[in-house]
Write the structure tokens for this entry.
Amino acid sequence: MQRMTAGDAAWYRMDRPRNETDVVALLSFRGPLGLGRVKSLVEERLLPLERFRQRAVPRFAGAPGWELDPGFSLRRHLVH
């Protein structure tokens, strides 16, 4: 498990049911793209980076951390 940075840990600790701290991305392209092409671009450019396939995990002592999400699915994250 990788330790979170202080900034990531602060956002993680602020997340509550009444105060959600979701991270959202907006992608802008010069012309129309089908969802399949967007999916391919994300798989090619982001998913090779481990952080984009990890999930936050609590720790009892110290800062929370990051670990690979064994159930990671791009379908849960990429919405048209």
User: Anything to note?
Assistant: The chain has a mean pLDDT of 90.
